[in-house]
């Protein structure tokens, strides 16, 4: 189905691949070339740094209340105080310090929830695609059932049943987000199964475990990583939404969603309490999206040729 | 002086890629007279398709025509405004593509797509366009045109679709028809039918034809003149009789030898070894020397020019 | 001539068979959902604790346990649970003291109103921007649109809603803060929901348009001498409608998920608000019944997507 133009471009592309692939420097060359990827990486590096060294960076104790200093505006406004650069909330707690500490919850929940989802979904997708038959039918119908329930609703209900805490939040996000992994990994495994090298190892009597671990797993890693970066972003937003609804991390643990929920009541008088945590979430998620786009471009040249630049 | 139908001079079309500029077409010149069929042959990647798209000014980004002249009836196409160029396309110059399966829009009926040409170039209304579409389908040998005109492309076979494409290209009686591998995707019997159809239309309407192909059998059947391209350049330009009787460039000879002859016992396909060079790393000297059986030391150093071997026969080789 | 295949599809009977088959495929999915709900509610948690207010006495708990049949083996419980469901009994809301299903259905019109308004906003934003971005690929406009859609994806819905309230209701006072009734009430919640969906679909429309603009038939259209607007708006857009409409119809799940948040922020009296209130108020019957209603709507949305896909693409026949 290729037109002459496509054939010519394809040749150019193969030429390029032959020249540059296989070197680690290619990754960094591409990263440097992609400004968006660089920005994403810088944002994420900054946020991880802030989360890890929160104790050293934060000017105040994030949970210490100070009623005499409640609802102070940010420093650049009238009545602002340079001790509290982003102002204080309804209990006189420093908004900046709370944002700094809140990054910990976002990152912990984002990363662990995705690891759990990836483990469940990856395993089920692998089994489903590899064995096929009735196992596949059951797993895929379960996927359909999960897809028919909006994940936000499912999360609400699981948290409702299990009670809100950091652990249940991670569990909930993991148990509702495995579906994406299962579908994509299953698809990859199905196409991989038809490849000659897999067929060949089967004819020489390699065990299922061996085929899965030596041939199939390494080949599905790139889709796994691509799905994972997007999922971390989705998990961080979900965490914030659930905390906002009061079903996420409970006080005194600081979370951006919880801060937003508190600040909402003071919107008319003290806009900063609800505004800054939202900006923090947006920047974090944007950083992950940028980084994710770049990772996808590097790992999956097919998708790059098709879509985003 | 009477202009030739089409005169391409020193055409250069480059693709700007991340790793550098790829000169897909690098100084190509040739001409076509009215009623003449010119074949452009070469392996895929030699720039023959890009040449044809350059004439239509349809080279897609990142490709761009960067130099040369394309005189059509004395008028330089490269200097025309977008609007004037549009008036020529599908009207006085039209094109048939290699892939009949994907060259028709899947969501519109034949009537819609074929009638469109009449509606934009002849300003016909829907009813008249339909009548002319049916007449056109009949002319290209499609049975039951009244019914077929209402079909969607997927309801037609490859051969039928290519006939529709030809009908579309010939709708406004073009002076120049560019056919880019029109039969490659079709099976042999359909191929012969389509070629026969093109030939008869070419004779009946005195249409100039540029036939792009890699199949020398098709060339022998159809062409009056032949241009052989290699790595974005013309390496030989001769009448079809001269070329087959007296091929001069080693690449042309190689192409001829790889053509199986029906009356001979097929012993070994004497094909050309190696493949088209990487456009980013063109060999020094003659572009063909790494694959050339006659290459000498000077071929690796001196770039040969396209020179007259004798009247109406040009060759780009140091050894002629 | 054998190469012509007659027009098969669009025959009434074929369509009817297709619909019957599709509806039959829903049944196992709904069954699985019932199992998921059952496991969630009966196995992982304590339904008695969930259904009673926290102040209930031990005696109340005993009575309820027996009344619910929770002292019986688990499979007996599931059979009874399913039996009730099949009779349309999704339980009784203790808060409203009414059957759960009608309470939910009563809220549907408000939710549909919001959903439709959001989809209109999402379409009005994403279709022109997605097409423009693809046609002007790699231009500054494209970079701007792609960037804006990334930003739209990164902004949490609920925060966007709050910011809209801050800007338009609190500061500029041109829209009401919450509630339902007039057209003004609809704007902010629909915008909150619509922008999030537009961010996602703009990207998809862009990539589907890019894919289509590279197709051979687009080159054919250009070679016929069509003006670029006609090439894009007729030949390319009509083809891109196939994935775009499908994508739009498939947003029903995202739409409901977003409605949970948007309705809560704006106190929009739809199903989303009802569910969030039921979760916070521990109204088990409503929560349980709402899962089925929502799942049914999502499945219906997918079915509509599938039907639209078939209608828009003449190549596809009903199987």
TrEMBL record, chain B:
It is a peripheral membrane protein. The keyword Disulfide bond does not apply. GO terms for cellular component: plasma membrane. Gene3D superfamilies: P-loop containing nucleotide triphosphate hydrolases. Keywords: ATP-binding, Cell membrane, Membrane, Nucleotide-binding, Transport. One of its GO terms (molecular function) is ATP binding. SMART domains: AAA. Residues 6-256 form the ABC transporter domain. InterPro entries: AAA+_ATPase, ABC_Ni/Peptide_Import, ABC_transporter-like_ATP-bd, ABC_transporter-like_CS, Oligopep_ABC_C, P-loop_NTPase. GO terms for biological process: peptide transport. Belongs to the ABC transporter superfamily. PANTHER family: DIPEPTIDE TRANSPORT ATP-BINDING PROTEIN DPPD, OLIGOPEPTIDE TRANSPORT ATP-BINDING PROTEIN APPD. NCBIfam families: oligo_HPY. This is Oligopeptide transport system ATP-binding protein. It comes from Brevibacillus centrosporus.
Automatic annotation (TrEMBL), chain C:
It comes from Brevibacillus centrosporus. CDD domains: TM_PBP2. GO terms for cellular component: plasma membrane. This is Peptide/nickel transport system permease protein. Residues 108-309 form the ABC transmembrane type-1 domain. Gene3D superfamilies: MetI-like. Keywords: Cell membrane, Membrane, Transmembrane, Transmembrane helix, Transport. The chain crosses the membrane at residues 20-41, 114-134, 154-170, 244-266, 286-309. Coiled coil: none annotated. GO terms for biological process: transmembrane transport. It is a multi-pass membrane protein. Belongs to the binding-protein-dependent transport system permease family. It is found in: Cell membrane. PROSITE patterns: ABC_TM1 (PS50928). It comes from the Bacteria. PANTHER family: DIPEPTIDE TRANSPORT SYSTEM PERMEASE PROTEIN DPPB-RELATED.
